[in-house]
Structure prediction request, 253 residues.
Amino acid sequence: MEKRNLVIVHSFPTNSVLLQGLTDFLSDYFNVYMIDLPGFMPDVLPLKEISLEGYRRYVKEKIESFDLKTYWMAGVSFGFLVVDGIRDDKCLGFLAIEPYINSEFLKMSKFKKFAYIFIISIVGGTGIYKKIWGSRLLKFLLGKEYRKRMDILFSTIDARTFFETAKFILKDKKFPVFQDKPYVLVVNKKDLTIFSDKTISFFKKKANNLEIIFSTSEHYPQHMTKEYFQKHISEKEVGRMREFLESAESKKF
Prediction:
């Protein structure tokens, strides 16, 4: 079977290096084009003014440079919010991988959310981030889910980009405007970062043509290898996804 083109935008705070295992896994089924957002890799300069629309413009320009006839677009967590706002007739549909909807869908207490916003605002607003980036304090604040990947995170992601994007994510209460295209929702019912049941209900209401694929992958796995994703996304679920994509394409063409 000929592979489909799949454009992917990574989650926060990751990049193509940290998600290499996911790329390797998906490459068995797609021609994968991973896009690093500005500021998330050293060779992709940060935006002067960091915003969701700025990220979307950059991604759209990158996609145009690929010169693809058709493609599917995937967003991992925060990456979904970026890609769903991009309009392109060549895009056949979307893969929402453990998607971030808005801050109300995060499994985080209001107190903790407020505390993070307060700290991030001070750090970002005063320029302290230049001094604490890579520090033990920041490693502690980020939590254990990132500790095994700290060296990569601090050596590849721009500090200002990290703090300003984090603040946006924690404060955002807008809802993505779904397009009239097919959607594949990849979700773990036991996700510890987002409310999975709430996310599933939201997609059922907003997506006219939807397939739900279940995985057991953590939102931020410690070891994101190809073998990890092979173990946590079954061949059966991958098969259902591919059948859905083929069916959706046959209806379109």
